[in-house]
Each structure stands twice: as structure tokens, then as C-alpha cells.
Write a structure and sequence with these properties.
Elements: H1 3-19, H2 26-32, H3 37-51, E1 71-72, E2 75-83, E3 87-94, E4 99-106, H4 114-128, E5 138-144, E6 147-153, E7 157-159, H5 160-170, H6 194-215, E8 218-219, E9 228-231, E10 236-238, E11 245-248, E12 251-252, H7 268-271, H8 280-296, H9 306-315, H10 330-339, H11 351-362, H12 374-384, H13 386-397, H14 401-433, H15 447-460, H16 466-473, H17 479-491, H18 497-510, H19 514-524, H20 533-545, H21 549-557, H22 568-583, H23 587-595, H24 603-617, H25 620-631
Helix pairs in contact: 1-3, 1-24, 2-3, 3-24, 6-8, 6-11, 8-10, 10-11, 14-15, 14-22, 15-16, 16-17, 17-18, 18-19, 18-20, 20-21, 20-22, 21-22, 22-23, 23-24, 24-25
């Protein structure tokens, strides 16, 4: 590792310690590392570019204070009121119109990703096309000094998720006169019909909003309590169209591979492959699930892992909300169950039908939804409890029941092991890849947690190769263990014979044993046609460290794993490619490659990008301009 790379890592680690509350100054850092004083001063100067870009997220209950910029375009920023993976939301004032707004600003380091920028624009454009009382209005979108933003209606209220949390804490507290307080919807004893009537009327407005969006060719795809606001007048408003499917004639603005929703509120068809064909009935289901949680004060389905949750949504009918809260009127319970039918053909076919039934209930009229009859209910119980039903039939038929049930139990156990193994490996892979993300490894946990996840996966299914490969590529463990992992991955077919030798070379070089690494690399021999991505990446790493960066780039250009399933391998590909590009002086190429990490840019990677800008420009002044373009801040925030 060069002195510049060591300095970049030290500055990134120093910044992380300060973000977690450490009282450590820049002078303390320089005093602790006198041999790197010049390099550290350079990176501390470059860090000034980044301080105005990604302030540490405020701790819960702490006012984040005023924004670092006072103005963006026609808007004066007052304070930060929310922060997500892609953007920051500010309370602001539109100067020309003298009106309060909420201004959503794309995080500058995320703006380095063209896909993130396109999604941000789609979100603003989708919501901007809609004008409805129950949809948070978007006033406009713009860009100022490289910073993308859009202005929307400022809601004086809170999310429905916060309302549900209040209802869980409500207890015997008397009702509030404030219409934005959910306790005002409840009678003095908390058992009357007023609460349910008010809730039905409010949710009918959200259903109207969805019908308006569907008529405009927009499917929201992420209706959930945190995306519904309750304003000071007691009106529910739909927000956040970031995952919306927008149809323009025959062209969809949604890209393959986009996340399609939030697990607890996703319809069964959203979970299945081919979810891009979703229609308005998926939003009907999600709104029904949101109303379910509002009435029952718990989501319709729960699971320890996403896989378990998905399995329940696909295979089970939600228990009626009256099971958890017997005070819910039967008609309202029937409406919720109708909206959440697993089969889309049995749901309300439009959000307008859903809204009509909610209003019929609120006005004391007859609803159109009907409860399933005795035969249908019996059949659903049979489907829900297949094991007991099949066991009863087998007892009546003969003595084959034992063998059939044992076979079924074996399949279920095999499925359970498969799901648990996949979950453990994926969590470990995400933890290792997160070394290049804002959270580093999982916040509050150590590398030992990642090793523990992989050890559990190997103990659960020792014959599968994935956990060995992840532990090998992450270099998680002592040398002997990593070499054994390479052998295990080869024995289980995930590494070729040549890939096995390159993997041993990777492990040995990571431990500083260059002579043995070179011997293993020499034994690997010449490249073969149609080699797998892992083998190419391992060879490219060795070539880069051996001074053959151009050859390394040639190997990497032949195969580049992309998509969510690539995970750690994709991250390593980007890092190895950036190293090779930097060694041949392709500063701009290295910057573009590192920007491919997208929303996961961590402190050390952001410092490295700024350093590359400086080297590309040949001086601090040029780096300042280029850095400003990359991160989107004004000259007043830059100091030598």
C-alpha cells in the first residue's frame, strides 16, 4: 500500500470516529502519524470538499441543525427534516413565491451514478404529473451547481407509521382535539365506531389518489405506512413515487432489476418473477395491507427473514384483522380481506371500487364485498392446513401415511435448510461488500460476526460451495483456513483448476507472501477461453500488483458481473479495475469505476475520488473545480 493510500484510509477512519462522537482533531491525527504528515495534510485539505456534501446522519431525537448550504436555486434552506438512501429533505422557503416547501435534494455522491440520477428524475416527474387532494404535490424540479432537487408541498404532520406507533401507545389516554392526532378519532373509551368510520373515510381518500394515479398510467408499487402522511387537518396524503411504474405508451420507465416494493406490504404477484407486469390491483393489495396494520396495529404477515415473509405471503391468507382486534366492525374487516385476496381476480379490480366500499361503510350503507361462504371457508382452511388434512385422509386410507408424511417433512426440512443457508451467505456477502459502503461492515458489529455467519452456513450445509468462496474472497480468517476454503471451493466445482491456483495466489499475496503467490500464479499457466468471472478477477488482481495493469484491464473487460446477485464479486471487480486504471494513469476511468459503487460510496472511497480529481488536474486549484463538479458544492465551502 502506497503512502497516499495509507493516508486516504487514515483520514477516512478519522472521519468515521468523529461521526461516532470521538473528540479527535486533525492535529491529533498528524501527531499520531508524523511520517505521513505531508500526505495527511493533502487528504485533510481534500476532505474539506466532502464535509459540505455528506454530513453525518443525526442521531434519533437530535435536531440536525441548519443545512450546510443556505440556498439552492430559488429556495432558502431552513433545516433538515428527513434523510434516506438517495436524498435529503429540507424544510425550505421558495423565495420568489414566498411559500414554504419541502425540498428533496439528491445526495451529491449518489449523483455520480447515472441510474440513481434517472430514478430521482422519474420520481419527481411521476408525482409531478398528478394533481390530487390526497397526493403530496410536486411544484418543480431543477439543478443548481450540479445539485439535483425537486420541491414539493410541505406537510405539517407525520407519517402513518408514526400514527400507528402512537396508537400502540395510546392505551386509556383521552382523545385529543387535534385532528392530526389519531386519538381524536377514538371515542372516550376507545371502543366506539367513530374511530373506524373516520379511518375508512380517510383511507377512501388514499384509494381515490391511487385511482387517479392509475388513470395516468402510474402504479405506485410501494404503498406502506411510511409513505402515507397525515396532515394537520386529518387528511391522508400519498407520497414517495420513487419505485413507481410509469407507462409512456408502450414504453415503461422502470428498469429491469429495480426493487419492486417493501416486503411486508408487497402483493403476491410482486414477489413472483415477472413482477414488471403489475397492474393497479397490486396497489389495492398494498393499501389493504396498510389499512390492516392501522386497524390491527400489526402487519398482516411477519417473518424472521425476508424469505420466510415471502413464503407466507405467497402461501397463506392473512388472518382477518378482527382476530387481533375484535372491536373492528365486521363489514370493515370484510373490506380489508377483500382488498388483500391472494388471487388478484378476487380483489377489488380498481382502487375506485375499494374507495366506494370504504365510503359505504363510513356512511352506514351496505358494502359490496361479501364474506366467503361455508364451503369456500372450509376449502381455504384445508389449503391453510394441508398437512393435517392430508394426514387425516392417509389415516383413513391405510398404513402409507407414515412414509408419505416423513417424505413431506424431509422436503420441508430441506427447503428450510436451503433458505437459511442462502440467507446466512447473503448477509455475510453484504457485510463484506459493505467495507466499501457508508456503514463499513454492519454498524455496531465486527468482522467476527461475518465469520460467524459463514461458519454457521458451512455447518448447516457443508456440501455447498458458496460460503467457502465468500470467505475466501473476503480473506476472512487465518491463512490455513483461507487456503482450505480454496480447496473446498475447487472440490465443490465453483472454482476451476486454474481458478483454484489463482485463488491461492490471491490469499498468499494478501498475507504478504509474494514469493509463494508468484509460484502459484506461474503454475496457473496461460489464460483459457470462456473463463468464469471469478477466475478473471483473481488473475487481474495478481497482474495489477505485479505491474501489468494494462493486461489486468484486458482481462477484466472480458467479463463483468452485474446485478444484485453479483454482490461481493461485483464490488471486488470495481475495486480491482480502479486500482489497475490508477496505475496506468487513467484517473478519469478510475473515478468512473469507483462511482459505480453508487449509493454505497464510503468515506475512504470518496476521499480517493477527490484525490484522483486532483491528480487528473495536476494541481489543487484544478482539483477544487473538478471536485466541486463531482460533489456539487459552492466555492464558499472550499478551503485549503
Amino acid at each position: 500500500m502506497t503512502a497516499a493510500q495509507r493516508a486516504a484510509r487514515l483520514v477516512a477512519q478519522w472521519r468515521q470516529r468523529r461521526e461516532t462522537g470521538a473528540q479527535e482533531t486533525a492535529a491529533d491525527l498528524l501527531h499520531a502519524h508524523p511520517g505521513l504528515a505531508a500526505e495527511l495534510r493533502l487528504h485533510l485539505d481534500l476532505q474539506q470538499l466532502l464535509e459540505g456534501v455528506a454530513p453525518a446522519k443525526a442521531s434519533p431525537g437530535i435536531d440536525p441543525g441548519p443545512p450546510l448550504r443556505e440556498r439552492i436555486g430559488d429556495f432558502r434552506l431552513l433545516r433538515e427534516i428527513g434523510r434516506g438512501g438517495m436524498g435529503v429533505v429540507y424544510e425550505a422557503e421558495q423565495i420568489s413565491m414566498r411559500r414554504p416547501v419541502a425540498l428533496k435534494v439528491l445526495v451529491p455522491e449518489v449523483s455520480l451514478s447515472p441510474k440513481a440520477v434517472e430514478r430521482f428524475r422519474r420520481e419527481a416527474q411521476a408525482a409531478g404529473r398528478l394533481h390530487h387532494t390526497n397526493i403530496v404535490a410536486v411544484y418543480g424540479m431543477g439543478e443548481d451547481d450540479g445539485v439535483l432537487y425537486y420541491a414539493m408541498e410541505q406537510i405539517k404532520g407525520r407519517t402513518l407509521a408514526a400514527v400507528i406507533a402512537d396508537l400502540n401507545r395510546l392505551g386509556a389516554r383521552p382523545p385529543s382535539p387535534d385532528p392530526s392526532d389519531p386519538s381524536s378519532w377514538v371515542s372516550t373509551g376507545g371502543t366506539g365506531r367513530a374511530f373506524f368510520t373516520r379511518a375508512a373515510s380517510a383511507f377512501a381518500g388514499v384509494a381515490d389518489a391511487l385511482e387517479h394515479a392509475h388513470a395516468a398510467g402510474i402504479v405506485h408499487r410501494d404503498v406502506k405506512p411510511s409513505n402515507v402522511m397525515l396532515d394537520s387537518e386529518g387528511v391522508l396524503k400519498l407520497t414517495d413515487f420513487g419505485l413507481a411504474r410509469v407507462e409512456e405508451g408502450s414504453h415503461s420507465l422502470t428498469m429491469a432489476g429495480d426493487v419492486l416494493g417493501t416486503p411486508a406490504y408487497m402483493s403476491p404477484e410482486q414477489i413472483r418473477p415477472g413482477a414488471q407486469a403489475l397492474d393497479a390491483r397490486a396497489d389495492v393489495y398494498s393499501l389493504g395491507a396498510t389499512l390492516y396494520e392501522f386497524l390491527a396495529l400489526r402487519p398482516p404477515f411477519q417473518g424472521a427473514t425476508p424469505q420466510e415473509l415471502f413464503a407466507r405471503i405467497l402461501s397463506e391468507d392473512a388472518r382477518p384483522p378482527r382476530r387481533w382486534n375484535p372491536r373492528i366492525p365486521k363489514d370493515l374487516d370484510t373490506i380489508v380481506c377483500k382488498a388483500m385476496e391472494r388471487n388478484p381476480a378476487r380483489r377489488y379490480q380498481t382502487a375506485a371500487e375499494f374507495a366506494d366500499d370504504l365510503r359505504h361503510f363510513a356512511e352506514g350503507g351496505a358494502i359490496r364485498a361479501r364474506r366467503a361462504g361455508p364451503v369456500a371457508r372450509a376449502w381455504r382452511k384445508v389449503r391453510r392446513h394441508r398437512v393435517l388434512f392430508v394426514a387425516g385422509l392417509l389415516v383413513l386410507c391405510a398404513g402409507t401415511a407414515t412414509g408419505l408424511l416423513a417424505q413431506r417433512a424431509s422436503r420441508e426440512e430441506s427447503l428450510r435448510v436451503t433458505l437459511e443457508y442462502d440467507d446466512l451467505v447473503r448477509r455475510a456477502e453484504v457485510g463484506l461488500a459493505a467495507r466499501w459502503s457508508r456503514e463499513r461492515v454492519v454498524r455496531g458489529k465486527s468482522r467476527l460476526d461475518v465469520r460467524s455467519l459463514l461458519a454457521r452456513a458451512i455447518a448447516l450445509a457443508p456440501g455447498r460451495p458458496e460460503a467457502y468462496l465468500v470467505r475466501l474472497l473476503g480473506s476472512e480468517g487465518p491463512l490455513e483456513e483461507c487456503l482450505a476454503d480454496a480447496d473446498a471451493a475447487r472440490a465443490r466445482g465453483v472454482l476451476t483448476a486454474r481458478g483454484h491456483l489463482l485463488a491461492r495466489s490471491w490469499v498468499l499475496r494478501e498475507r504478504g507472501r509474494s514469493r509463494e503467490a508468484n509460484e502459484a500464479f506461474a503454475l496457473a499457466g496461460a489464460e483459457l477461453p470462456f473463463e468464469d468471472p471469478v477466475t478473471r478477477m483473481l488473475e487481474a488482481r495478481h497482474l495489477t500488483l505485479g505491474g501489468e495493469a494494462e493486461a489486468a484491464l484486458a482481462r477484466l473487460s472480458l467479463s463483468d458481473p452485474e446485478g444484485s446477485e453479483a454482490g461481493l464479486i461485483h464490488y471486488l471487480f470495481l475495486v480491482v479495475r480502479a486500482d489497475a486504471q490508477e496505475r496506468i494513469g487513467d484517473w478519469h476511468g478510475a473515478i468512473e469505476t469507483l462511482a459505480g459503487l453508487g449509493a454505497g460510496l464510503g468515506a475512504d472511497v470518496r476521499v480517493r475520488i477527490a484525490s484522483l480529481w486532483r491528480r487528473a488536474g495536476g494541481g489543487f486549484e484544478v482539483a477544487t473545480v473538478r471536485g466541486k463538479q463531482a460533489v456539487g458544492i459552492t466555492d464558499s465551502r472550499i478551503r485549503r
